[in-house]
Specification:
Elements (H helix, E strand, L loop, with lengths): L4 H6 L20 H7 L4 H5 L2 H15 L4 E2 L6 H5 L4 E4 L3 E4 L21 H14 L6 E6 L1 H10 L7 H9 L1 H24 L4 E5 L8 H17 L8 E4 L7 H4 L6 E4 L5 H8 L3 E5 L8 H15 L5 E5 L9 H14 L6
Parallel strand pairs: 1-4, 4-5, 5-6, 6-7, 7-8, 8-9
Antiparallel strand pairs: 2-3
Helix pairs in contact: 4-6, 7-9, 8-9, 9-10, 13-14
Length: 344
């Protein structure tokens, strides 16, 4: 039996239909998710493997997507090692005592199997259910620069003033911070594969805040080290960032199998800049105006994807909470029926 289309597209191979999944496909846009989650903390939900596995499965059942992604968060491993992170509804990760000096390095201790045992149980439960349809599970983690942005800033930011000041004023300390994040991320991702994940995505959501020189000096080396540390696993890896159009050629040097392209760059241009398998890049806001507008936007992306192999259809960022699930159902249908990239 051949591998699922998602895995083949990630390797640049031909497929029977264009694969599609959505970042943040398991989330607040789904009524079944809201009914199941209630109002509790996302970290509490992640701590419950049965609940997390069910949330992981919900969009697969509803949309018929070609991959599931683990229900978790990029701060999960740092919550597990007691760095002092909470995820505040409507705001995001908040750190009571942000990373400020070399003394904080000790708070980023090595992660152990006991720390993430609940996440691996979620992986196992999800994989067991996905096996009936041979749908792959994507594991994930945050890339070091993006995680560092939260740890240093203490909360989501638009300015990135604190971390950029550290980068330029205390580069040695910043490098030590990157070293600790790499040391935590590699075993965490490797464990997800050991427990059944068949692909991995590295979210560098805030890399777009960097200049090309900053990305090359402060973000790319640690990302390369993580991807190098996963190479022997022989699973596809995806590197994704927001606002990274001017960094795409640099991101392509990081060593991932696939580069995610956000909606700020036309997909054909993004594919040209990376020259490797791509993922993306429908603007999630184009799904808010009803089926007709979303389908028109989907067809624009499909046209830009062209016919060359090596593309996975996705949004250019995560599903917005007010998205009508029926709209995404139609998007999946259109992608499967009309997508031409690598389809033979």
């Amino acid at each position: 039996m051949s591998d699922p289309v998602f895995l083949r597209a990630a390797r640049g191979e031909t497929v029977e239909h264009l694969p599609v999944w959505f970042m943040r496909q398991a989330g607040r846009s789904l009524p079944e998710y809201r009914a199941l989650r209630g109002t509790g903390s996302i970290l509490d939900a992640i701590a419950d493997p049965a609940l997390s596995a069910e949330i992981t499965m919900q969009p697969v059942r509803r949309y018929g997507v070609d991959a599931a992604i683990l229900f978790s968060d990029i701060v999960t491993p740092y919550h597990a090692i007691d760095f002092g992170i909470d995820v505040v509804p409507g705001r995001g990760p908040v750190i009571a005592n942000p990373f400020k000096s070399a003394s904080d390095l000790a708070r980023l201790r090595d992660i152990t199997a006991d720390d993430y045992a609940h996440v691996m149980k979620t992986v196992e439960l999800s994989v067991a259910e996905l096996s009936a349809t041979d749908t792959p599970l994507i594991g994930f983690a945050g890339a070091p620069f993006t995680v560092a942005s939260y740890l240093v800033e203490g909360a989501p930011t638009r300015e990135f003033a604190v971390i950029k000041t550290m980068m330029h004023r205390e580069p040695a300390l910043f490098d030590q911070l990157m070293d600790r994040l790499v040391a935590i991320t590699i075993p965490y991702l490797r464990a997800q594969v050991a427990h059944g994940a068949r692909a991995l995505q590295l979210f560098d959501s805030w890399a777009g805040s960097l200049t090309r020189a900053e990305y090359t000096r402060y973000a790319l080396p640690s990302t390369q080290r993580i991807l190098e540390g996963l190479k022997d696993l022989d699973v596809p890896t995806i590197l994704f960032g927001v606002g990274t159009g001017e960094l795409l050629d640099l991101m392509a040097q990081a060593g991932s199998s696939v580069v995610g392209i956000d909606w700020h760059v036309d997909l054909d241009e993004g594919r040209r800049r990376t020259n490797k398998p791509s993922q993306g890049n429908l603007d999630p806001a184009r799904c808010l105006g009803g089926e007709e507008l979303a389908i028109a936007a989907t067809r624009e992306v499909l046209a830009q994807a062209g016919t060359d192999a090596g593309h996975i259809f996705n949004l250019g960022h995560g599903v917005l909470p007010t998205t009508d699930p029926k709209v995404l159902e139609r998007v999946v249908q259109v992608v499967h029926e009309e997508g031409k990239a690598g389809v033979r």
